Amino acid sequence: MAANRFLKIGIPAVVILGVVVSGFAWRHFKTGNGLKAWTYKIVNTFPHDRSAFTQGLVFENGVLYEGTGIEGHSELRKVELETGNVLQRVKLPDQYFGEGITIFKDRIIQLTYQSKVGFVYDKDSFELLREFTYPTEGWGITHNGAQLIMSDGTPMLYFLDPETLKQINRMMVLDQDRPVWGLNELEYVNGEIYANVWPTNRVVRIAPESGKVIGWIDMEGILPPEDRSEEIDVFNGIAYDPDNHRLFMTGKYWPKLFEIKLIPTK
Ligand SMILES: [Ca+2]
Q1: Taking the CA of residue 221 as centre, how many other CA atoms within 13 Å lie in the half-sphere pointing to its CB?
Q2: Phi then psi dihedrals of residue 24, to 5 deg
Q3: Ligand 1 centroid distance, CA of 189 (Å)
Q4: Ligand 1 mean position, distance from CA 33 (Å)
Q5: For the chain, what is the radius of gyration of the CA atoms?
Q6: Using one digit for the tens of pLDDT, what is the confidence trace for 108-131?
Q7: Ligand 1 centroid to 264 CA: how many Å?
Q8: How far is the CA of 100 from the centre of ligand 1 (A)?
Q9: Is 4 helix (H, G, I), strand (E, B) or coil?
Q10: Residue among 91, 53, 23 at smallest CA distance from 229
Q11: Contacts of 236 by beta carbon, 8 Å cutoff, 6+ apart
């Protein structure tokens, strides 16, 4: 069923409504509201496991780390960029729907969708070190070097102490005066927060101190039609290689992972 393509099972009606409203904000943007805008150029194409329901993506020291979703299929993975081969993996207990991941120092933090439980692993061994809880859904997570930053599908970003994993602040993301709904997978890139906006092919660039939208990246058309799946296959996954200034993007069940360069359009 076509309608199922974008369904995230059990998604709250308030988020659906918010995303629809955000659509109006996007059209407003397209008519020109002074914000910056970018499109993309594909620099490299790498293989990606088509069975991976990608929910979190990070790059560090030459390898990708990926969190996948769906109950019974959720994993934390270490993945070879060039081949897409899984180098290391740990499976989540079947009841959990894995979501975003981030690497903070020697630990990996992974969220779950509606269980309100997060996991902390040793980065090298993938040994589970601890679990923690949070009051919202868990969608995306990244960090700014001092605090973890997480999303829950609403326009809100939550800042967590990386040691206690307690929420210490939160911030609404606004495009002019309009809340941006559907904030999903996150990446901290050169002092900005990048968020892919569920269930679109757009990435919003956010000023981390104010929550103000800096501009939008239009990723439309990055996955060719012949590579699209009959299953849910929306854009989901941003990773950044700060040493070589490389930006990677992929999606749920996508057979490809792209290294891109941003091209300003205004
Ligand atoms: Ca990411």
Answers
A1: 5
A2: -65, -40
A3: 10
A4: 28
A5: 17
A6: 999 999 999 999 999 999 999 999
A7: 22
A8: 7
A9: helix
A10: 53
A11: 54, 55, 184, 185, 196, 198, 250, 251, 252
Residues less than 5 Å from ion ligand 1, measured at CB: 57, 187, 238
**What is the distance in A from the centroid of ligand 1 to the CA of 221?**
20
**Res 26: pLDDT:** 54
Q: What is the 236 CA–ligand 1 centroid distance (Å)? A: 9
Spacing, Cα 83 to ligand 1 middle (Å)? 19
Distance CA 30, CA 58 (A): 30
pLDDT above 50 for 249: yes
- Supply the DSSP symbol for 153: S
Over 70: is that where the pLDDT of 24 sits?
A: no
The model's pTM is 0.90
Q: In angstroms, what is the span from residue 32 Cα to ligand 1's centroid?
A: 28
% of the chain residues with pLDDT over 70: 86
Determine the average pLDDT of the residues in 86-91.
98
Distance 198 CA to ligand 1 centre (A): 14
13 C-alpha vs ligand 1 centroid, how far in Å? 25
What is the CA(206)–ligand 1 centre distance, in A?
14
**Which pLDDT score, from 0 to 100, does residue 17 have?**
66
| Rounded average pLDDT over 139-150 | 98
Centre of ligand 1 to C-alpha 241, Å, is: 11
DSSP state letter for 93: P
Measuring CA to CA, how many Å separate 193 from each of 6, 42, 206, 247? Answer: 24, 21, 5, 13
CB-neighbour burial class of residue 27 (10 A; exposed 0-12, middle 13-18, buried 19+): exposed
Mean pLDDT of 226-238: 82
Q: The domain at 2-264 falls in which architecture?
A: Beta Barrel (2.40)
